[in-house]
Amino acid sequence: MRPVTTALWATAMLVGLQLSASSPDIVDLSSKNLSSVPRDLPQTTEILDLSCNHIQQLHRGDFKNTTLLRFLNISWNSLEEINRQTFLDTPLLENLDLSYNRLTNLTGQQYLLHTQNLVVLNLTRNAFLTMTLGSEFGSLVKLERLALGAKNISMGDFKNIAEVKLHTLTLCLEDALGYERGSLNDVHAHRLQIASPGHQIMGCDLFADALSLFVEVELTNLTEGYKDLSRRMSERAEIHTSHHYLTNISITWADLTHYVNTVLRTSIAHLSASDVIMSKLPYIDTEVVKTSKMKSFTARRAVVNSFFFSQEAVYNFFINLPVETLALVETSIIHMTCPKLQSPILELDFSFCALSDTIFSRVEGQQRVECENLGNVRKLTLVGNNLKSLQLLSKRVQNMKSLQHLDLSLNSLFYDGLEECVWPQNITNMTLSSNGLTDMVFKCLPKGTEILDLQNNQVSVIPSTILELKNLSFLNLNFNRMRDLPACNGFPLLNELLLKSNSLHAPSVNKLESCPQLKTLDVSSNPFTCTCALRSFISLGIKSEKKKSHTGIELLSWPLGYHCTYPEVVRNSVLNKISILEVSCNVGLLAAAILCPAVVMIIAVVSLCHRLDVPWYIGMIWQWTRAKHRARTRHVRPEDLVGIEFHAFVSYSQHDADWVHNYLLNNLEGPAGGLRICHHEKNFVPGKTIVENIINCVEKSRRSVFVLSGHFVKSEWCHYELYFASHQRMAQGSDSVVLVLLEPLPQYLIPSKYYQLKSMMGRHTYLEWPQDRAKHRLFWANLRAALQADLPNTPVTELEE
Length: 801
Known about the structure:
Mean pLDDT: 86
Largest sheet: 22 strands, parallel
CATH class of one domain: Alpha Beta
CATH topology of one domain: Rossmann fold
Number of helices: 16
């Protein structure tokens, strides 16, 4: 009887947990060798397990600190006495298990007067001689489940609970039970559980009263006496019971089929057998009642202990039952036959069996014949079997013309697309979850499908060439490999699309434009890449949250189910907290954002440079740097400087003499420049011709400086000086001539005879005299750098910059 106690306790725990607003505080002190209730129990205790100890008495105050206690298990102790005020401090107590103790009198349970909130009470397996309940049981107005056990049950034993509306009354029968017929008349319960001692035959009078008084009757632990129960059942003119359960039983095939046929002849609507051990199974078919009022038959966890029998005979008995719903679940059947005649069955459930692709078919000669006698089946459930070929399954059910709901989940189904599927046309609900199906499955679906469940498969994309599912309104693709949102071209009426836990990085929201009827979308728990491609999806989510989406789509689990996986800096961030600026995603805006400031900056810099003559400064610095570089890198042989007395010979027009004397010579000669300058007014030798003096000065000077102006190009002597200097330039190098532009000198103003000047101005850099006085210092530094040289017998002077 220990399983019954455990079941009651588990049920009560489940109910209590559902009622509790938060997780309860559980204290487990079972099997601790306790002889009394501990005094140091936590005040927050809600669930207390004291089972399997040696507690003999419960006293007042044992639970004074546990005012929140809801569940108390003191089963499997040695309880003999419970003080009437034991539960005075536990007003919230809902579940009390006192089974497997030594309580002796059901009329003396005075402690129940303080347990008005009890919902579940278990008093089975005590030392009660009679089932007479005391008046204190009448105070349990909230009681729903009551479990009792005694050696004798008599009339009036239950009169004190006549006003208590129970859901379930459990009677654990004792050995040699004495039962007086009609003793259960005072009980008002929806369900009666009768637990047999196992080795004894259940009393027929008790069973007869059960059938006449209770809507649901459950018999457990039966091993024999089935024929007597069948006889008593067939003798009843009127049966109140509509649901009959057989649990944890052992039965022969002959007793089982006789019992089932007997129930089929009664008004009982539902028969269920769980945890059944069958023996002496048949070699030939067993006759089945042809017609019945029974609606459903369910067998769960049935096993056989026979090695030699006809499996076909067993299958034939069940498939030919005249019921509307047939369920054989969690049972190792490897095949199911076809009914011999057109079956009235509307629903078939063979979940968690071992069925193969040959289900319902048979072999005749060399051909496999499909079943044609299940034409009334509307719902077929084949969850958790060994089914493999989706195309073969379509052939197995092709003659089920009424089939609307087909559940093939938790199998090993595949479809290779080599053969066409032949589904019946009326299927509207298709469940194919947890298989091995790929994209090809969309070519093997009933055309009238309205609800399609493909979660936990291997679908990566919906092919564009799929069969058109015009009526499809619900599509579940959770836990697949989808890489993007599908277009709805093949299913225009799609209303709900589930794509949770796929491989979507950046869903293409524009594809939703092909889904005008879509109202619900779930794309949560995908590996979103938070880059520009995700902006439109994030916008959809935010609009969905604010109910402002023009599409009217509700995004399920938004925003907490949507997180970034890349880039690393925003990993695990919720999408609605991510900001991806449009300017970083729009190439035009990005170019404008970069180029416009750049252009403005360039214009500003150019304008500022023009205003501050920056190009001129840069040019002058560049010339100074080149001159310095040439001075350091050029190696002048001593013999090349023989006869050189001057750093430079200055050639200029007489009209520019004032500038030469006031500016040029003052900044090049003496302490200011440290250079030795030759010019005609100082160094021409009287008596010599001008040409001789020019040649002499040019030959004795390291370089020749020409002060260019409009007057220079009009002077004949200047032309001679330029001519001779150009010949020296050819002999000494291109840096022997230095041009100083005193004023702007356009090319067209230079006479043609000055072709050498034009050539030099076109190919070589010249120095311009700046009008701005701030630039004069840099001008002179450049000119001195260009003329500086170590002459024989000439002290080295450092240039001032």
